[in-house]
Amino acid sequence: MDQMKRFAVYYAPEKGAFEARASAWLGWDTGAGRPLAQPDLGLPGGTGAAEITRDPGRYGFHGTIRAPFRLAEGSTPAALKAALEDLARRLPPVTLPGLRLVALDGFLALIPEGDPAALQALAARVVEETNPFRAALTADETARRRPERLTPRQRALLDLWGYPFVMEEFRFHLTLTDRLDPAQADEVARILAAHFAPVLPRPFTIDSLCLFGEAEDGRFHLLHRFSLHG
């Protein structure tokens, strides 16, 4: 854990049919830290899964609660772990009706159905209580967020919390692909909707927080899971 260059707080499903199918689709087992064979789903144009999952495959299957950050000077992975463990004891699980597949800004993702207020509140608490562990953004890190494309509010959130899509701008999603051209996205969406339909959880419950770490090779690993008991 001490060798990780960044940390993040994610939702990640427990082992089971949903986790197995999603992890295989992205080609990375975050818990075991090993690549997985990706399924051949007959994608349009003979495209392989690896060709359209390069970015999400590096992160593994997850939903962001607190985006990746470097530890602040004086903070330690052990202290971050202890803080998350304590926070999880105080936060209640969140249950929503289910998940559905959508196109978001050119990529395909699963998003929750129903009222997102409780999930937004959960994410806000995690962002607030982990912020003392976050190192300030460097100029390069700020530039990578393309601040010129952000709204004034998103830019303010970036400066305050290190990420622009938090608090009221937070939109929980589970990324499945890179950005696709519109014609390709429609066909891939049809195929993935059928592929995931048998394993999508109903209801969809977030009952744990997962601490992830980014290794030197850029791959993300599931380090600890903390059950929500509030």
Explained architecture:
The chain has 230 residues and is of the alpha+beta class. The chain has a single domain, classed as Cyclic Phosphodiesterase, Chain: A. Helices cover 33% and strands 23% of the residues. It has seven helices and eleven strands. It has a four-stranded antiparallel β-sheet. It has a three-stranded antiparallel β-sheet with strand order 6-7-8, with helices on one face. β2 and β3 (34-35) form a beta hairpin. The chain is globular. The two termini are 27 Å apart. 30% of the residues are buried.
In terms of topology, how is this protein built?
Layout lengths: L5 E6 L5 H10 L1 E2 L4 E2 L18 H6 L3 E7 L7 H14 L3 E3 L2 E6 L2 E6 L4 H14 L8 H6 L7 H10 L12 E2 L6 H15 L7 E3 L1 E7 L5 E8 L3
Antiparallel strand pairs: 1-4, 1-10, 2-3, 5-9, 6-7, 7-8, 10-11
Spatially, the strands of the biggest sheet line up as 4-1-10-11
Which class best fits the helix and strand makeup? alpha+beta
- Per DSSP, the total helix count is 7
- Fraction of residues in H or I helices: 25-40%
Shape by Cα distribution: globular
CATH topology: Cyclic Phosphodiesterase, Chain: A
- Main CATH class: Alpha Beta
Number of domains: 1
CATH superfamily, by name, is Cyclic phosphodiesterase
SSE string, helices as H and strands as E: EHEEHEHEEEHHHEHEEE
The gyration radius over C-alpha positions equals 17 Å
Query: How would you state the average pLDDT, rounded?
Result: 96
Strand segment count: 11
Separation of the first and last Cα atoms? 27 Å
CATH architecture: Alpha-Beta Complex
Query: What proportion strand?
Result: 15-25%
- Poorly predicted residue ranges: none
Could you give a short account of the major beta sheet? 4 strands, antiparallel
